[in-house]
Fold these 2 entries.
Entry 1:
Amino acid sequence: MAFPHPDPLLIEAEVFTSLPPALRRPAARSYWADKNRRGAPVDSFIEGPSFDLQGNLWFVDIPFGRIFRASPGGEVELMAEYDGQPNGLKIDAHGRIFIADFRNGIMSLDPASGQVETVLGDADSEGFKGCNDLHFGPDGALYFTDQGQTGLQDPSGRVYRWYPDSGRLDCLIDKVPSPNGLVLDSSGHTLYVAVTRANAVWRLPLSQSQRVVKAGLFLQFSGGRAGPDGLALTRDNGVVVCQTGMGLVWVHDALGIPIAVVRSPKGLGTTNCAFGGPDGRTLYITESDSGSILRAELPVAGQPMASGWGLR
């Protein structure tokens, strides 16, 4: 009996740019590396790619609290450095830059001055476990994950929705073993969340009252040293999943059927991704092990983010 679906297209990524030696810190110790790499030195750990309206790609460096910007030609410059652990970064429709910081909560960055400040440090005086990633909905609501050190041993990670202008904060779910990347479908009715330590992606339907109902398992992975990390959405409502620890990025259709898989030419740390390019078919991927940003041409276009494409 033949398999009912064709094999996914295998796509080899290429290196778009890398952190130059002058911006790496091979000899510097960091609290993040001491706790997450058992003291092994790291010169960077990049994450959180997001395009601005001018076509620049912003991304973060977790261990050293740094924010970088890569030009359309791949030149990388340091835009900010502060006392924190930035993990996710997104830019809203007005060009405002928001950061999910593991230590400090949700932060904002002024691109002109490089000033970073906390805009949401707790949930009604209760501290966050450790914010990880974020996503803007079409109404301007900011969805973000509060991962901390949760996992199968402690399935208490949370997903929040915050309205920056009104200050309203909703906890959508609080029983997730390691919530990570997240993305809302184009209808605004379904939220997909990468659940790293369960090696899965969950599907969270939102009711008319905007509560999570009938939460379910959408995709199940296996193997690797971690699991699903950053997510993106195709224009056809398919889900793109960065499988960190395997050096892969999986592209699915709206039913969850894999139609393509992107393979890293560098390390296995494919942590997050963002669509760009003139037709929206180029996927840019942070490869954290090597401090590189990869890119690959996909057979499908991506769903526009709040900040637009960053057209080349």
Entry 2:
Amino acid sequence: MVGVYVHIPFCKTKCPYCDFYSVTNLRPVEDYLRALATEIDLRSYELAGVPVETIYFGGGTPSLLSGRAIGDIICRLRRSFDVAAEAEVTLECNPGDLSTLDLDEVITAGVNRFSIGAQSFDPSLLRFLGRRHTGEETRALVRELHRRGVRNISLDLIYGIPGSGEETLRADLDALLALEPTHISAYHLIYEEGTPLHYRLRRGRVSAIDEEESLRQSHYVAERLRSAGYEHYEISAFALPGYRSRHNGSYWHGVPYIGLGPGAHSYIHPWRSYDPSDVTLYCRQLLRSTPFLSRTYERITPEMALEEYVLTRLRTCEGLSLSEMERLFATGVGERVLQRAQPYIVSGDLLLEGDRLHLSLHGIDISDAIILDLI
């Protein structure tokens, strides 16, 4: 299987914590849509004869596009690629963006999974995060989807926010679970370098919560969602049985995918490539009489592939397979990784089950250090 990611690089406002490429100038939208259509046509050969099992509209804010525009993109993808009839088609949404007409159009076009950026239901925390929606708008969108028979709904939650605590986190999880999502992505707030929030942190205008509170919130989220019947299948992802994100899962299991749109990444082993993170350049190159796109390429060496295998597999509940490592890389690799893992197995941060190593709940707290030691 392979996947297709479509980057929609437009936002009405830029959230201060976000480091994904996006612009708040919406004037190039029509040019972007025409350029995207050209890129789809130009790159159709890359996945020739291979079934596309997942399509993911990310951003930016894909829900800023009209339902008709999303439908047109899906139709072009189906014409250019071998999109499976049962493909998972995900649309990231900001609550309050989609009209009922847009919902009907995108569902008719084939969107069968919605990823909604709820983040919080607390008005003060939403303001801190720079979100332009309310908790009630999140509830209203989920209700509209349920009315249309859509059950494959993912809600995003951000925790570890300054000013939050046990009471606000409990209330957020109560509100989240009341909507009965089939999937939840729960992220600890990160101060990504180059973002306005990171700038405010460096200038002392905001203070991150302390490590003890951070771990307490992380454990509470995981334990609460697990007890509610969600499987903790990836460090930041929880799903009811049968509702894991097939597209995101492909990133953790080395499945090839192509990324379309400015700033999008592609992976077809042994190459990784990047579209330019510049919507103006993207449109200018693809709308020429002889279109082209100045993508950046990186060859993945065997050493890089091994490091990425450890990094991605350990993020999942299945963990990494020592025998698979021997088969994919070289004899003795699995044994060396097992030797390096011994201190963490003894401490209980890594669990060894058969030939598989995976993180325990407490091991997730120090996952970066464990991964670094193993590679």
